[in-house]
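Duplicate of #3305? Posting structure anyway:
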């Protein structure tokens, strides 16, 4: 009896279907920019020419755009004396405290306030012309001499800027001549020497960049400061360059070459490389086999011979209906894969 029962059980077991090992889940998806960053204009200005295009991959720190600034130049040859402004400063605040962003002294430090009283009797000697070069001599010592230029005229009075001199001294009384040999017939008046005040360098706006240092010699036309109309974030200046914040790709460009742009206007949209991730649509019946943190193999359609390792970082909490069954987006971060590009198709194996 026992043998007969055992035979029946064996025959029943042989009649049952054999279950093959469960196969892994394969889900197709697309590389997406799951997180993007807007590149905003740090201040108002005009957008310069640029070479970057949507789709370009750049390294952190590479230049995307430039924005122009108002430039403040030296009006004459001289020495910088006192640089009070620093990048990010409000020009108005600096000038309220110090009177200027910086000061400039001319190569010569002397001027003279003069009058035609005492000039030679010839009527022409009583008419002084702005811009003419004259010769000066100390009333007390004719070895102290120099040359000067007439900078202003008001009636009988005029001012000089001393261009060169030998031992001229402050508050010294001088005589002024048109001729280098100091002939009395060319005398056009007299005056006294005074200190030529430093010239205040001023501007309106905020300091983006400072190009000079205290004591530096500059020439007329040299760049001193760059000024922008808007307050700079974190009191930082710069060189007008708007750079890529991290390794990644440029998704779109909003800035227009040569156009005026306002502060905080969007210039471009970028995505960090680490935020270029695979998004797959998983059916609800497959969710039980997928969980955050699990490792999966990913094959890019464009590089089937170079499978990559990935990690599930997110499973959507709500379904995205496709018309037939509920689907849930599964986001997978790929491990250090330089081949990945936004828009690529790939397959994940769970």
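Output from current build:
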């Amino acid at each position: 009896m026992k043998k007969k029962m055992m035979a029946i059980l064996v025959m029943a077991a042989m009649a049952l279907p054999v279950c093959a090992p469960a196969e892994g889940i394969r889900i197709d998806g697309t590389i997406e920019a799951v997180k993007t960053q807007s590149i905003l204009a740090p201040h108002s200005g005009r957008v310069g020419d640029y070479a970057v295009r949507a789709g370009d991959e750049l390294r952190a720190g590479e230049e995307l755009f430039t924005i122009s600034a108002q430039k403040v130049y030296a009006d004459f040859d001289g020495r910088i004396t006192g640089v009070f402004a620093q990048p990010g400063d409000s020009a108005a605040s600096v000038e309220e405290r110090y009177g200027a962003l910086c000061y400039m002294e001319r190569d010569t430090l002397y001027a003279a306030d003069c009058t035609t009283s005492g000039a030679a009797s010839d009527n022409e000697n009583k008419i002084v012309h702005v811009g003419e070069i004259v010769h000066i001599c100390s009333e007390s010592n004719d070895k102290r001499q120099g040359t000067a230029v007439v900078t202003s005229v008001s009636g009988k009075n005029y001012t000089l800027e001393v261009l060169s001199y030998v031992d001229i001294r402050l508050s010294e009384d001088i005589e002024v001549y048109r001729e280098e040999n100091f002939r009395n017939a060319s005398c056009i008046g007299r005056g006294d020497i005074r200190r030529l005040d430093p010239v205040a360098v001023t501007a309106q706006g905020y300091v983006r960049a400072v190009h000079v240092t205290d004591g530096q010699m500059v020439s007329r036309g040299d760049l001193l400061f760059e000024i922008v109309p808007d307050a700079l974030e974190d009191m930082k200046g710069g060189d007008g360059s708007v750079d890529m914040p991290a390794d990644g790709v440029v998704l779109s460009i909003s800035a227009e070459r040569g156009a005026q742009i306002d502060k905080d206007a969007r210039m471009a949209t970028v995505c960090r490389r680490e935020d270029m991730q695979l998004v797959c649509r998983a059916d609800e019946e497959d969710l039980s086999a997928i969980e955050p943190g699990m490792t999966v193999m990913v094959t890019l359609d464009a590089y089937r011979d170079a499978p990559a390792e990935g990690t599930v970082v997110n499973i959507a909490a709500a379904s995205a209906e496709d018309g037939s069954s509920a689907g849930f987006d599964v986001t997978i971060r790929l491990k250090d894969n330089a081949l990945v590009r936004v828009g690529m198709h790939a397959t994940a194996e769970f």
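Confirmed duplicate; merging threads. Residues 137 and 145 are 4 Å apart (CA to CA). Confidence is low (pLDDT under 50) at residues 1-22.
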